[in-house]
Amino acid sequence: MREIAIIGIGQTKVHEHWGLSIRELATDAIFTAQKDSGRKNFDALFVGNMLSGLIDQQNNLGAVIADWVGFKGEAVKIETACSSGASAFRAGIMAVASGEIDSAMVVGVEKMTDAAPTDVTSALATAADSDWELEQGVSFVGLNALIMRRYIHEFGWKHEDFAPFSLNSHANAAHNPNARLPFAISPKQYTNSAMISAPINLMDASPTGDGAAATLIVPLDSVRGNKRAIQILGSGAATDTLSVHSRKKPLFLQAAYLAAKRAYTQAGITYEDVDFFELHDAFSIMSALSLEACGFAVQGQGPRLGLDNEITPKGGRIPICTRGGLKARGHPVGATGMYQLVEAVQQLRGECGETQVENAKIGMTQNIGGSGASIITHILKVP
Amino acid sequence: MREIAIIGIGQTKVHEHWGLSIRELATDAIFTAQKDSGRKNFDALFVGNMLSGLIDQQNNLGAVIADWVGFKGEAVKIETACSSGASAFRAGIMAVASGEIDSAMVVGVEKMTDAAPTDVTSALATAADSDWELEQGVSFVGLNALIMRRYIHEFGWKHEDFAPFSLNSHANAAHNPNARLPFAISPKQYTNSAMISAPINLMDASPTGDGAAATLIVPLDSVRGNKRAIQILGSGAATDTLSVHSRKKPLFLQAAYLAAKRAYTQAGITYEDVDFFELHDAFSIMSALSLEACGFAVQGQGPRLGLDNEITPKGGRIPICTRGGLKARGHPVGATGMYQLVEAVQQLRGECGETQVENAKIGMTQNIGGSGASIITHILKVP
Description:
Oligomer: homodimer
């Protein structure tokens, strides 16, 4: 397989973009990535998106965005719920790696704030199992609350032990101009925030939003010597049962374990070589489960990393969510995986200012669709 | 790029499958393709589907189907409206060609008959431009009617000149046990059928339905000498503006021209080498436009091929829709592109009985999403 690199990145602020349509948001990120890459053309467009059919009454989003960008080549949408962004990125990698094309523009985009909140909740619920979970009336946050409640019971944690995940994300977002909630919060704010679905309170949950993030993928050979190029060292994807109740171990993210294992093997590294980890903190419980499945903590001990101050960009053993994560950068669902990748490139280029991880050479991203059903992991490296 | 082949095929009947869910339909086709291939495993699952979010309240369909099949590897959904099937197939090709995986199961699936017809019409309209076409209240058949009306005006045809397209598809479907409408029709039935959106009448339009079709894709080297293997010789995809009114030449399928050109170049053939052509006759006007864009007729003269009896499997210069096409095999939208590919394999294996094209060595398929916005062409060959 030929070696691949990211040469351009672009992103919009995660925000309530009431003045921009979904195609305009995507185009903003694409044009920024093109400008950043110094290249004028690309061979194919891969779009990661989950909800445009349900919220924007628009399918065929690949062609829609190609049209707006003025591109007539091939364009497709990839959808794996909240991991659509990383799935589109992986499709782009394989297209360039195959030699069929020489450059792939990948954009993750979502526009959620035009719809009523109840409609967004219904739309997000389509990431769960319609026949076996939704029929019971459980929402997506409800499913995560069941997992968190069981985890607390099983391993003896208290709710406030999850606070460091939320505090770290918010503290980091304060330095990210593209973040949805760019401010720090206090432990008291975490504890006292409104309950959504016990034990998940508002500070355990990521906010939705509108946004787009894009990267241009090219063969590594074509950008040798370019200091802005970042190599894609590993890529792995796996699935698990959609229904949480069908899993033998509902507190272990089997697909995260498999996806990370494949990415580590491809990259020829172990978790110990990872300098920072942009993980999928849609809910604070997911931070713990993701860290455990990828080898950074033993099962049941994920919160310990937060309590021991090991997840912060300054001096932490495994800094996570260095630009704010889903919790505070925001979670425009189909775009999130692409934000993680753009942010990882920023870290590896050394462009992260206050939240820069010192001497970061290898970064990992992990995007999750459904309650752990589709998981995609990428490992990036300074070439 | 390594050479690729199809080794297994499977399909369900296109039908009102009220007793089967979307995951069960897909699984039927996948298991049949596995059995046909003689292989027990595959490395990744690519799902082509357009409407599961809107009609079945189910996204993340890759993971849903993987779950039902008992597969834990990577699984994604690809969506490009009615060309989702062929887009998923092309993604599968690139994944195997890259060397990242060694076998890809591709399934196109759609379940449309559980929804009310008006809901299906609304859902299908999301293939058109939501902001610039749907806002005007035009439905998908309405857009095609505008194209057909202009074409008749511009090139001086009469409505009955399109009859051979419909008659050929129905005559061929009579011999296809998986067809939705497996019966021949008479010229009088064509002329007298109910008007839907003038000048498109019921016999110009393809029926929706439930169905799934699947193929297993592997490196050609792994199946050398296997007489059931069919080589994928060329693959091309292109897009055009989503809105028909934005095109300089609304009567010419520019994306079909570009996609076919790329596929011909990759295959090292011209249109004259093609023994049969499974084209996208969602409406009879699309048969004419597709034949013209791909080189089989000059612009404005597509209907001539039908009138001259050149499109039938027995003795026609370029047999089309040999298993019934969209018109009579049926059009379960996201599955259609995969039905075309499965049928092309059947022709090249010589399994088509009454509608077998004699000495068929090279077959072409073309799948269209939107009113010509996303077009994917494949060329298959007996290796």
